[in-house]
From TrEMBL:
Stored InterPro entries: ABC3_permease_C, MacB_PCD, Macrolide_Exporter_MacB
Residue ranges of every copy of the MacB-like periplasmic core domain listed in the record: 18-230
Record key words, sorted: Cell membrane, Membrane, Transmembrane, Transmembrane helix
Protein name per Swiss-Prot or TrEMBL: ABC transporter permease
Lineage, top ranks: Bacteria, Pseudomonadati, Thermodesulfobacteriota, Desulfobulbia, Desulfobulbales
Amino acid sequence: MNIMTIPMRNIRRKPSKTLLLLLVFSLGVMSIVALYEVSQVVGHNLEKKLIAFGANIIISPVSEKLSVSYGGLHMGDMLFDIQNLPEQKTIEAIRSIGLKDRLSAVAPTLVTMTKVNDTAVALVGVRWPDERGVKSYWAPKGTFPERSDEVLVGSKAAEKLHLKTGGRISLLGRSFTVSATLYETGSDDDTVIFMDLTALQALTGKPGATSFIQVAALCSGCPIEDIVAQLQEKLPGVEVKALQQVINQRMTSIHFVQKLALGISVVILVTAAAMVGLSMMSAVNERKKDIGILRSLGYGKPQVFLIFCLEAGLIGIFSGVVGYLVGFAASFQVLGFLHLAEGGTPIFSSTHLLMSAGLFSLVTVFAAVYPAWKGAGVEPSAALVAL
């Protein structure tokens, strides 16, 4: 018998009590692991859904603004030396950054002005799959354009130009069909006409040109500043702007879910640790005779203290392993029950398994420090006299 075998024998001496303690602590670990895995998947899915409500990075050519006034008449701010971005080259550069797996959508856009019946209106050329990827809130009265001779008209523009679904409109010398008008969005989309990007590039004589590119980035796994820095490195001489307000609003929602799960996990962990501490305190009171015998055989206070800590540590390691495996399996059931499994599933990690065993063994050891200290303080004479 040595200092390593004594804790194992103590655990086996009262199997029912030990099993009950293991069950309680394993359930605590299982709850924490399941909450962690569910919060990760829910946060990821929530971010992907929020991304569909607009881009959070805008890439545009650098332009200079000049405030013009003459003879006391202020003519406003004017942009000059405006350049367009090459669509294919710019998108290839965006898709080649190190954090490209964090990019959810890349939507090129070309904007120009025209007149319809002497009314000025903005034409916006888009790639429909990409644009709808960042604007899932669009609700059309009709169907989204499928052909290059179809356009989508914003609500205010349609009212101003007296356009309805199925109507015809002449834009830049070519006739188009209004496949749908948008319900009011409260954004600039209400005042413009959307059409196929290739069609607008041909009509304006700017093949392959874009005014700016919208990028929807997933920000929960890395700072948005890292993505912006990598884009600036790949696109020198181009303005890359992060929409911080949009990013902060989205991250607040995601962090709320993660903080809620963390708070519940801390409560569960403290409760489970308290159970371990109470159990170890009970064990100390029951084993005063054993402690007295060990002390009489020459075991010092540090060795007795170590025996109780090792016993608690073994319980923590076993509970950490079992709790992680069961909690990981339970997270699938929870996600399925809550109908949240769409778009992502928990990913098993052996590193997390080892971390779980190590972390929860430290927690149980910490919970057993006071009982172990009390046990180590038992004097052999007092213990043997009590017999």
